[in-house]
Structure prediction request, 260 residues.
Amino acid sequence: MRITTLASSSSGNCALLSHGGTHILIDAGISLKRIRAALNRLGLSPGDISAVLVTHLHGDHISGLPRLAGNTNARIYATRETIDSVAVNMPAGTELEIIAPGMEFYVRDTAVQAFGTSHDAAGSVGFVVASETRKFALVTDLGIVTQEVLSAVRGADAAVIEANHDPVMLRDGIYPAAVKQRIASDRGHLSNAACGELARQLTESGARTLILAHLSPGNNTPELAIGEVGAALSRAGAVVGGDVRLSAAPLHEVGDTYEI
Ligand SMILES: [Zn+2]
Ligand SMILES: [Zn+2]
Prediction:
């Protein structure tokens, strides 16, 4: 199983998961042009994508979806609330599949499970993707890590996890008070410290590859995020760079490909 983030920040999200000849995109929050260029760099084109899994209806996850849908035969999986928000913009004939938290389905021979997330978007979910021997989780856009999230991601070999903000940068930053409050709330985004706690639980259940994601350009830096999450892992006895690979997904560019 191979994981590559194509873009990951509050301004646009898209990740590629490949297993054998099955290629799955998670979210399409960047333009078709950027998705195509990123896929080309990896030797793929939109026509090679079997499925697009959509986490939720915010623009940084769906802005490129309608044009992508018109340029691929991929089936699009999203919750009813997300589909309702994009359906009007989708080209005729798009294959839309309604999913719900807790639901399991297959993309060819790859199992996918959606789980609910605590976020200020109706019907928001994260995903676990599993082959016979490997399990991957994508956990972004959530204000708190609930039991539902933890039980879904337990045992993942690798995960893309949200490290959205440093609370001090957020507090001192330029955002209006209401936006700051939203980001820091239980239905907002995970701080570096909350991400560290999630990372600890993941490594304790076997994760060896953690990719920090959805960093806020104004309220975080890769160095701060890696520093804080790395410290949490070290305190728990993990050897970062040894038994655990820890990295931050580039905000606006294609990241490294991680084989698990
Ligand atoms: Zn987002
Ligand atoms: Zn969101």
About this structure: The two ends are 5 Å apart (CA to CA). The mean pLDDT is 97. The chain is about 30% helix and 30% strand. The pocket of zinc ion (ligand 2) is lined by residues 56, 58, 119, 121, 141 (CB under 6 Å).
